[in-house]
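Build the 3D complex.
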Amino acid sequence: MRYGYYPGCSLTGTARPYEVSTKAIAGPLGLTFEEVEDWNCCGATEYMSLNKTAAYALVARNLALAAGEDKPKDLVAPCSLCYLNLRKTNHYMAKYKSLGKMTNQALAAGGLHYTPGSLNVRHLIDVIVNDVGYEALGARVTRPLTGLRVAPYYGCLLVRPDLNGGSFDDTEYPTHLDRLMETLGAEVVDFPLKTHCCGGHMTQISAETAYELIRRLLHNAAEYRADLLVTLCPMCQFNLDAYQTQVNRHLGTDFHLPILYFTQMIGLAMGMEPKALAIGQEIVSAASVLRKIGTAVEVEEAPQTRRKRDDKSLPMPRIREG
Amino acid sequence: MTEKVGVYICHCGTNIAGPVDVEEVARWAKENLDGVVLARDYRFMCSSLGQELIQEDIKNEGLTRVVVAACSPHLHEKTFRTACSKIGLNPYLTQMASIREQVSWVTEDRAAATHKAKMMVAGAVRRVQLQEELQPTEVPVNPNTLVVGGGIAGIQAALELADAGHKVFMVEREPSIGGHMAQFDKTFPTLDCAACILTPKMSDVGLHENIELLSYAEVDSLSGFVGNFDVRVRKKARYIDEDACTGCGICIEKCPKKVVDEVFEAGLGYRKAVYRPFPQAIPKFPVIDRDTCIYFERGTCKACEKFCPTEAIDFEQTDTYLDLNVGNVIMATGYDLFDCGKIPQYGYGRLANVFTSLEFERLCNAAGPTEGHILLRDGVTEPQSVGIIHCVGSRDKQHHAYCSAVCCMSALKFGHLVMEKTGAEVYSFYIDMRPLHKNYEEFYDRLLQEGMHFIRGRVAEVTDAARLPGEDGKLIIQAEDTLIGKQRRIPVDMVILLGALQPRFDAKETGLKFGVSAGLDGWFTERHPKLDPVATMTDGVFIAGTCQGPKDIPDSVAQGAAAAARVQGMISKGTVLIEPIVATIEEARCSGCRICNTLCPFNAIEYLEDKAVSYINPALCKGCGTCVAACPAQAISGAHFTNDQIFAEMEGLLYDVIGSNGATVKSPQPALEPA
Amino acid sequence: MSRSLGNKDDAFLNEVIEATPGGEALVTCLQCGTCGGSCPSGPDMDHTPRQLFQMINAGMRQEVLQSNAPWYCVTCYYCMTRCPKQIPITDLMYTLKRMAVRAKLYDDSDAPDWSSSFIGFVESYGRSFEFGLATRYHLTHSPLRKVGVGPMGLEMIVKDRMPLRPERIKGIDQLRTILDTAKSLEGV
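Done.
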């Protein structure tokens, strides 16, 4: 399976471990990533704050470079923010004709053109759960993550905005990462804040605001007795990992929750060495919790199927599928 | 042309005369259009003076054709046809030009509007001269009526008709009539017990000599036309012999299989595999649910059969079909509750103590799973605080853009019941309070005095993720209190979601079956939103209750009664006139290819084997023209819509290009003066 | 346009709508507060988004562009996804930021300066440069905050997660031409 690949700036810096682990698992899973040549920054959340058309043109240059007869139609971004910007530009250029026209006028000045919709912009996790599939992935698990309690943390931009029903998973309560972690053998906690904000760029602008948002996530994960949070976005990882010490100091808390990428978890379950997955580069060390892998844990009793005579509880609503 | 055409341009106050120069249109028509002997403009053509004006002209000037340029024919075609026929002119020799809906209301530029009005008048004038006299046919009305749906609207309609001495067939899908109202505890704003006011009406239906109740049954097909419908009803196998069953309930008692009751108990309680939805069910006969019955699953059990004292259990029963003839149909098929799980941020299905409004009704109901005790999902704990969320799936473009009309009042009712039964604090989160009917505002005032808290703000989310003191173990409702402009988090024990009322899951199929159309939102469409609220575009098919749109019990009852009154009118009159605008087949030209037979949306065309030609039943034909266009031999013509008439109208509309006599002219007289 | 009836000045409202893809939906706002209730940084905002919309309707240009709310937007898109009228609220926040910067109306310079520092690196190198950003922005804006944040930066460097040299794309000239053209097309 061939894909265009847009790593984004973070994966060359703060999110190196994401890049390393993505590359490490790609081959064994049969994924070929062709990096977009000479790609540029997507503008993060900043460019749009100062210039609109230029912000779309900045992103569109990447789309123009990635598109082409001989190039893969699917463009994969591991970073949720890059994914959003690429996806949104792809969508808005088609939906808002004048915006699309202006953006292409700007591209033309650089000798480029992009026909909106000619690429499918996809997040890395979408490719892994839908193209590789849970079954194929499960078959490759040699070191199940049994015993690890994992809080799956999706963040915002993988699932929002919806862009006319184009969201990869539910915008409020996605489940793909949950199921993926279950496939790897981990014990998944039903993390209520799974799509809440990590603070985004507020760590730079108003640290107090950001620290509180980070605290909520760590607090809730700790309440659920999670061993670690698994993420799929460089900004989420950075805010929760790199600022955890500050949060502890500033708010008088005592969290020690490692934040790993889902690609690192896949690699671990496939039996790869932690070092090959850049585990160890996180600020809050995952070493101690990872010792749990492989250790036997007691299997919980199967849930009661028969109602007890004195059970007065009312049935839970049956949720319709789909 | 030998016809003498009179043209009347209506001002409609300033509706038309504002954007259109009506005097100029009249002058132009008189001077330029062949056959026009007089053209007048008048303030209100639909007034009796306006009508008399036409009648005088017919009498004095010998008009043989009339064109009225005014509003849409939907509104006043009948008025002008009647006016003409009263003075002896066949009503089908009049024609309307819609210069209000199609011109003055949609054209801002006065010159352009005036020009377009002229062209519309030209079209009507050319067409009307080719129109022919037509005579409607009269058919008798079968005095029996079919009522579909046994909720409160259907019950009201059936009883009104039956009490007036007319036979009613009531078809109900569920094992018992009663509908949603039977599930409710109390009714707003009077707090009457729903069962106390409903069950007498239900038993009236069950016992009425003029009502034949077909429960656990569905309409399979409907054919025919107003006054003469043929209905096929499928009676689903009950596996109970209704003649033998005494309704003693021993079978229910002995049945070993308990399942969650997703319908009557809204998923909150249990029933047996053989069950009666509720004690006062009408009819009293239980139903064996084939999908959950142990015998049907494994081939053994038959506990019910063993204990039944009257040998009424019959596992061999199959679905049966009944053919009925009725003159009119009243559809009262009701609503479904919005699937609250579609708004995941409210936690329904995930957070145990989030309930839907229907679940809460059952929770509050003395006959419900908790015997009327308001308890959390553990079945033991009473809530100390309850949050009520309005507009769940309503007023929301992502789900239903409309307001569900009943939720504000349900919130007040629920608030009262919670406070009365538990003393809990109640918080209601609303966008706008809409207590619109008689005594509703007073009920709102009562709840304010009783201490219910109202927070104006649509809820952002319901979560169990505590982050502030006092939130542990609670459900936290987060919203902007828009009257303060601040975000608030209210910890509560129980949340009630006031889900939207939405069209039945199969409303679309039902609509097709009965020839009733639905709006974009899925509710059945009435003939006129203000002036004909219970009739539909299909003559003889009426709608009542929530299948037409969200409404509360008083409104549903009013519509049920209104639909019954309309039907009674038809029955009293005894006959109906069938529009003569129908298609006919010229047998000599028909090759018997039968293309038209399958295309006809009203199944009005049959194939005559002996003559090897197709035949159109004029009583079934609606004059839609599908077959006319489809016939490869051009053997079909539609009365009042012949090719000549349609082409003449088009030529008139193209007056600019082809002139008044129908031949292409080189330099047409410009109707639009250059500005 | 029926909206222009009456004596209300809609110039500001129309300007905001014009500058926002899909902005027309703004006029259908129900004032329900789903946006303000959903906003993670709502408590820090001087006006909730809902209030800003009503202020835009009322033509309160000065007060709106001075509001801190758009700068507290974390672009989580909760408001936009939940809005019952499908108003593109996050995009409107971007619009208000751009208008505030151009009108030089927002008092606190931290947030706009963070954006311009970021953009500066993108326009020089074609990529963002975290180390450069961290040093330049924090040294000028919050030297005191560095006391806490400093060791973290150091750790990132030690863990090989913060390259010390920026990477420049080959087509930087092409990119600059594109961006300049875009800006002139928008009349900036």
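DSSP finds 19 helices and 34 strands in chain B.
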